[in-house]
Amino acid sequence: MKYFLIVIMFLPFISFSQPTPTVEENIPYLVTFGKEGSTKWGDDDFCQTFFFSVPETQKEPIFIRVYDPDTGGEIDEQKGDFNTKTSFSVYGGKGCMSNKDARTTQPTGSYKSGNLLSSKTFGINNTYDKNWYSFGPFNPTEGELMHEYGGYIFKIIAEGISGDDGNLYKYYLSTGSDKNNPVEGGNSFTYEYTFRLYDDFKNVSHIYPYIDDKVISLKQSNFDWDNDGAIRIISVAKNGELCKVSGDANWASSEHVVTKEEKGTSYDIQFIKSNSLQKNNNVVLYVTNQYGELLPFFNTPIGGVPKYKYSIGVKTKKNK
After folding, report:
1. Centroid of chain to Cα 281
2. Average pLDDT for residues 45-50, to the nearest whole number?
3. pTM confidence score
4. What is the mean pLDDT of the chain?
5. What is the percent of the chain with per-residue pLDDT over 70, rounded to a whole number?
6. Distance (Å, rounded) from C-alpha 54 to C-alpha 141?
7. For residue 290, is it within any domain?
């Protein structure tokens, strides 16, 4: 899979809340299965990478907090007896993000690039069931400075190193070790998103890829949607353009033309369930441009949540 470094340094990285997933995304949890799990349960590679952007103006230490990092509690997806261990590792320094292997859809090559700052493996542990664990403190300058991404970048990798259960969890970029205090101007993003949907089909989940001025078309690829309703795109020029959806343990892709009005905005890819009986649905998504290069998903959408502008798609008839 190709990659590219999207240039967005001219855009403000303003964030009002910093959980990952965010309130705007309406996604209950991230999910990573143990490496002996079945891909039919909605995780294609048992590994997930996220990046956190910390502004250069940030002087206080930061923490990357994980909610419910253990496997074995009420939130997690049990397959037989709980037997899964998940490793969470935080990286910074040179190559943390700039290394091409860090920005792909598969955990191959030097995807663990950069300096390992902290790591911990969690199994069954009631201490962390529905509780937070904090990595840090980290000096902001311990991240890799990437001006085009708004500051210093930290990487966290969640990897199912054993077992077959699903570990469901969340992140928070914080200035506190025991509180969720947002880092002003921070953001988080990933290139491949593996997440849990709400069981309630009335809840619509959202993912926000950024469309820069070089993108003329994109290709969305989703895995293990289980034909559980519709996936559609909302943008300033699209009012619910449907995407091709996947079945059980397979991939489906569709291409979508980017209009002039959409450049420099975010897309809102919406996941709309229709089957109220479908429970514990996990899905994977990534998006590429016309060259097959991956586009990042920003948890706080760049430019804000896109709204369809009716006037863009309407042509008025001129009087003869």
Report:
1. 16
2. 98
3. 0.91
4. 91
5. 92
6. 9
7. yes
